[in-house]
Design goal:
The protein is α/β, with parallel strands linked by helices. Helix content is 32%, strand content 22%.
Length: 336
């Protein structure tokens, strides 16, 4: 998954294109099988296995550090860069707690012999902006001193302020130089609490990447790629998550028309079965993934890869599209 520091200055023609997957990233029980069945396409696993305690130490989630899974991934040659996730990382504000937290992360990575760590801290406010940048910078130094890697997942935005405080509180000008991979969650454009609309509009995604390019060449950037969908009961928020597999049950039994905006091609349904409430569903399928990747790679041929959210129940042809359209392998200039 990870582009080395030297590779960040290479031309787009020589840069690799890497596919990472967050796991688990859906409630579907088939997520692990999806992962293992597509190792020819997936280059890195970001296992969602850890979250911080208030004192800065780390809590392993249920199912974390699964020896059988780790052995399978290592046998396949996949870099293993688990994710630490939190919604309000107050521990990064207090310098003493931050030091404990960084030490705990370094100890974990060394103990488990991980290739690095992925930070997914979301939804904190502006008072934590500078402290979060300091945390990323200090963690980067600590991990790099041991030859380990740091990746970070950030909210999408097209300018520094973004559209909400969570995005504004992540200072890309400081985060990007410190990390090895910068994964932008270019999905949930309106979110489940908004009105029905595309989940990851292509034109907006390109604008987000345009902004990222003001801080770095895009070789270290991973575009978030959603494989899931949302359904709005009665056409009103909040939406609930649905996968392609679930959508197909509607299509086969009720035969609603699958519609697309030609400018974006994300699939949607808007129908009202007899005796049931109206449903509006937006979802990703191979047609959309193909369109989005073609458009994005035309605009940004130096993009370093994609980061997938929503394993399990996705359109199986999504993987064929990734295999077909990726402009390069995650090759010799990727740290494995």
């Amino acid at each position: 998954m990870v582009i080395s520091a030297a590779a960040q200055n290479e031309t787009p023609e020589s840069a690799s294109f890497c596919v990472s997957a967050w796991y688990p990233s859906a409630d579907h029980p088939g997520g692990y099988d999806t992962l293992m069945n597509n190792l020819a396409v997936i280059d890195t696993v970001n296992a969602f296995w850890y979250t911080p305690y208030p004192d800065g130490t780390l809590q392993a989630t249920e199912g974390a550090e699964n020896e059988e899974q780790l052995a399978a991934w290592r046998e396949a040659g996949l870099p293993i860069i688990p994710s630490i996730f939190a919604s309000m990382p107050d521990i990064v504000i207090d310098p003493a707690l931050r030091a404990v937290h960084i030490a705990s992360i370094v100890e974990l990575v060394e103990r488990m012999d991980y290739d690095g760590i992925d930070i997914d801290y979301e939804g904190f406010g502006m008072p934590a902006r500078d402290a979060f940048s300091e945390f990323i910078e200090e963690l980067s130094d600590a991990l790099h001193a041991n030859g380990r890697l740091l990746t970070v997942a950030v909210h999408p935005k097209t300018d520094d302020a973004g559209t909400w405080e969570g995005a504004a509180s992540q200072d890309w000008s400081r985060i990007v130089p410190a990390v090895d991979v910068f994964a932008i969650m270019t999905y949930d454009y309106g979110g489940r609490n908004g009105e029905p609309q595309p989940i990851g509009p292509t034109a907006w995604t390109i604008e987000v990447l345009d902004y990222a390019e003001t801080f770095t060449d895009l070789s270290k950037v991973r575009m978030g790629l959603h494989f899931y969908g949302y359904t709005w009961p009665r056409g009103n928020p909040p939406a609930t998550t649905i996968n392609w597999e679930g959508v197909q049950r509607y299509v086969k039994s009720l035969k609603p028309e699958v519609m697309r905006d030609p400018a974006d091609m994300e699939a949607y349904l808007d129908f009202k079965p007899a005796g049931l409430p109206r449903q509006v569903i937006y979802f990703a399928d191979a047609t959309f993934v193909h369109f989005k990747l073609e458009q994005v790679l035309t605009a940004h041929p130096d993009l370093g890869g994609v980061a997938i959210w929503g394993l399990g129940g996705e359109d199986p042809d999504n993987w064929n599209v990734l295999d077909e359209l990726r402009p390069a392998e995650c090759g010799s200039n990727a740290d494995e």
